[in-house]
Specification:
35% helix, 505 residues, alpha/beta, six-stranded mixed β-sheet
């Protein structure tokens, strides 16, 4: 076999320098890098080029650990304005809100702050009496939120007054033994304050008149809530130093995301129903798996077109996109019992465009007939030809079959997502690649790769300095060879080309 000339593809003077370098691979790579950097001096470089070459980008620091924050749960019957109040306390539109009952279904936690105190705010679905189906499971989650809270913010509609359902909630709160702050919501002016006095009859002490929609009275309400909250939670979870890795469970509606999260946790943490679109707000949960702590985020299903959605579904889609961007790895759930749909492709594209590491999880695989599986494997290879680099796990979210394979696949994807190739090794790789497969001639000219560096990780981003434009097909060829040589399983790769001309003498 003939050895490839390591100086191929270099500027002439850089090649002459590199030709005299030792044969030790590490020294050879370092000498090549130094020679190619020297060769760049002949080209017009911009300020950001110089900053990139000098490696001035600083690594982001991890989140500090700390004691568990006190937990304040917001409860009440449907449509009294709990999510609106949550958004008012947070100071941003975080919880999905719509002017109809039953929008919030899961218990959703948010980090909050008031008067210098940090705490965890938990939004819940409406609690109702003697309900069935999905409403019963929503009520169960509200009861769990009360049991895991340090204090409870009980929201009542002051314009309606105390109802039989409110009185049942009061009995539930007394049984829990938790400190309760009574919020009389929808008090939009002085006239309605008289209606709020009727809530003394609930026996929970002073009702605090508030307008969650307009912000009236929320300061006094939060002052009372801070007095009820302990300094350190009896129920919250401490965040490990450095912060746990964030995993977003994404996919189209009704593909099994919530079922998978419940199976991973080993408890009914999120509401599951056969009705598509059950989840509205992203649900975060700290999970201990194989000795490591993870943030798993259950998200609302991504529908065909966001702009075709209305009301709560539209805002749920926006929250899902935000959850993907805040995550480090996206586990894309696909249904093995149906062909890949346009929605599935859109979900995968969203995760790639966000630059997240990706794991593909085929749900309901245990339901596939043994004779059908080889044909399904071939169909999957054809459907996912653009993301063959993503690790795939076949599992069952309902039964937990092969769910233990998910964490190793996530760890492989994250390791690739954070991989950095030494500059000397990268340029040696490209020199060999260009020598064996040079860029095609275009207009009688052949662009040369002058130098390359990895600008960042998470995801890996490479910058190539060239004497001319590199075609998209050749950039895809470089990406394919990068994966074959260095792995990069489960992470998208970004390759950008900066065309630079020789400095005029």
């Amino acid at each position: 076999m003939t050895e490839t000339d390591p100086t191929a593809g270099m500027p002439d003077d850089a090649a002459a320098t590199a030709a005299d370098t030792p044969l030790d691979p590490a020294q050879s790579d370092a000498a090549r890098e130094e020679a190619l950097r020297a060769g760049l001096a002949e080209y017009d470089l911009e300020a950001d080029d110089l900053a990139l070459l000098e490696g001035e980008a600083a690594a982001e620091a991890g989140e500090p650990g700390g004691a568990p924050l006190p937990v304040l749960a917001v409860v009440g019957r449907p449509n009294v304005g709990k999510s609106t109040l949550v958004n008012r306390i947070l100071g941003r539109r975080q919880a999905v809100v719509e002017d109809k009952p039953g929008v919030t279904r899961d218990r959703v936690s948010y980090p909050a702050e008031w008067a210098g105190r940090n705490f965890t705010l938990v939004d819940t679905g409406g609690w109702e009496v003697d309900v069935l189906g999905i409403d019963a499971r929503v009520a169960e989650q509200a009861e769990v939120a009360i049991s895991l809270a340090d204090a409870v913010l009980f929201v009542v509609d002051a314009t309606v007054g105390p109802t039989a359902t409110d009185e049942r909630v009061v009995r539930l709160l007394r049984k829990s033994g938790k400190p309760v702050v009574l919020c009389a919501n929808k008090v939009d002016g002085p006239r309605v304050e008289a209606d709020a006095t009727e809530l003394w009859s609930l026996g929970l002490g002073e009702p605090h008149p508030v307008s969650a929609l307009h912000g009236r009275g929320t300061g006094d309400l939060l002052d009372a809530a801070m007095k009820a909250l302990p300094q350190v939670s009896q129920h919250g979870t401490a965040i490990p130093a450095g912060g746990p890795r964030r995993v977003a469970l994404v996919g189209r509606p009704n593909v099994g995301k919530s079922s998978l999260l419940n199976k991973i946790i080993g408890a009914e943490r999120v509401v599951v129903d056969d009705v598509a679109g059950t989840t509205r707000d992203p649900v975060d949960e700290l999970v201990q798996l194989k000795g490591k702590t993870w943030w798993f985020v259950d998200t609302a299903g991504i529908r065909r077109r966001v702009h075709q959605s209305q009301g709560a579904d539209f805002y749920a889609s926006l929250r899902t996109q935000a959850a993907i961007e805040k995550s480090e790895v996206a586990v894309v759930l696909l249904d093995a019992s149906t062909k890949l749909t346009e929605q599935d492709t859109r979900v995968i594209s969203q995760a790639i465009e966000a630059g997240r590491a990706i794991v593909l999880a085929y749900n309901k695989w245990d339901l596939m007939d043994e004779d059908r599986r080889p044909f399904l494997e071939r169909e999957i290879e054809q459907d996912l030809v653009q993301v063959q680099w993503a690790p795939r796990v076949n599992l069952s979210a309902k039964t937990g079959w092969h769910a233990e394979r998910l964490v190793p696949a996530i760890e492989r994807a994250l390791a690739s997502w954070e991989t950095r190739i030494p500059t000397g090794r990268l340029n040696a790789f490209l020199g060999e690649l260009v020598a064996a497969h040079p860029h095609p001639l275009r207009g009688g000219k052949q662009p040369r790769i002058l130098f390359a560096t990895q600008a960042s990780t998470s995801p890996p981003r490479f910058v190539i300095f060239a004497s001319g434009f590199l075609e998209a097909g050749y950039r895809r060829f470089i990406e394919r060879r990068l994966r074959e040589t260095f792995g990069f399983e489960g992470t998208p790769i970004e390759i950008s080309v900066r065309v630079r001309e020789k400095r005029k003498r």
